[in-house]
Amino acid sequence: MRRRQGNQRSVNGILLLDKPSGLTSNKSLQIVKTLYRARKAGHTGSLDPLASGLLPVCFGEATKVSGFLLDADKHYQVSCKLGERTSTGDAEGEIIASSTPGDLDLARIEAVVEHFRGVVDQVPPMYSAIKHKGQRLYKLARQGVEVERKARTITIHSLSILQWDSPILDIDVHCSKGTYVRTLAEDIGEMLGCGAHVAGLRRLGVGPYEGTDNMIGLEELRDLAEQGPEALDKFLLPMESGLSQWPDVCLSSDAAYYLRQGQPVLVPHAPTDGWVRLFANDHKFLGMGQILDDGRVAPRRLVNIA
After folding, report:
1. What Å distances lie between residue 39 and 6, 36, 142, CA to CA?
2. Would you state the torsion angle of the CA atoms of residues 139, 46, 24, 122, taken in this order, to the nearest 10 degrees?
3. Of the residues 48, 90, 187, 233, which is catalytic?
4. Average per-residue pLDDT in the chain?
5. Domain 4-72+209-240, second-level architecture
6. Most CB within 10 Å of its CB: which of 50, 108, 158, 201?
7. Helix axes 25-36, 218-225, angle to 10 degrees
8. Furthest C-alpha separation in the chain
9. For domain 246-302, which architecture applies?
10. 98 close to 195: Cβ distance less than 8 angstroms
11. Residue ranges of the domains in the chain?
């Protein structure tokens, strides 16, 4: 399953990294990749340097799953500082406006928060990786350039107040892909009439992965690396765990053979539509498939593990 080539290994699986605040997602990825001596690795969507928390790292063939995790729902706990707007929408930017939150009480804050639950339109911030005429918006923002951005439809599945201790409002957010938490904080602050920015952010969930129990931090990984690769590998989850919300289709030997040749196959009792996880009859994960209109199971992204 893992072959050595020079100082690198063929590693396959998903690590639930607890990214520390202060590091970029890419820097964290490179540190983990080096510790594992992995030939191939990628993360599943950047966390801001300010943010900490769950950053799934996909190794080897598991990188084929990363796009689906990128599109998955996310779960955050956010500390919003009311009364201050910053250039970036978070604590890393310069304060551009300030006011006193005044006598805000929970009832008024809750009434405002209610407006942001469910399906809402959100204008992406200038400090984002969205491209405008080939350039990232954050690069334009650093040059002092602001361009018009189209609102995007997002879904806030749940939004609850954890604590209000002026001027800090702590909230819990479960949202769809494409949601900018910085913009959410700013919009709440604007509706309250005092402005706001993100003072702290921690991600607790990505798709099927939820909570802190299975996360591991960089310092613990560094300590484990001194014990050898096996100590690190025990924290890898199987790549199919990233798709646990999908139904499973178990294939006979013949069906698995033809599917590996790129041919759709008919599988008794398979789902009637949607994406599926594909398994051989020995429970080996084969990859991702999709149900065609005629009911056959088509291969979409197969994994290749010797």
Report:
1. 10, 9, 34
2. 50
3. 48
4. 91
5. 2-Layer Sandwich (3.30)
6. 201
7. 20
8. 71
9. Roll (2.30)
10. yes
11. 4-72+209-240, 74-206, 246-302
What tens digit of pLDDT does each residue of 79-137 get? 999 999 998 899 988 999 999 887 899 999 999 999 999 999 998 876 666 676 677 76
For residues 191-219, average pLDDT:
94
Of 19, 18, 62, 65, the residue nearest 39 (C-alpha): 62
* Domains 4-72+209-240 and 74-206 alike in fold: yes
Distance between CA atoms of residues 299 and 306, nearest Å:
18
Report the CATH fold assignment for 74-206. Pseudouridine synthase (3.30.2350)
Contact 65, 239 (CB under 8 A): yes
With beta carbons less than 8 A apart as the criterion, state whether 242 and 68 touch: yes
Active site residue 90: no
The pTM of this model reads 0.89
| Closest by CA position to 53, among listed 287, 217, 270, 224 | 217
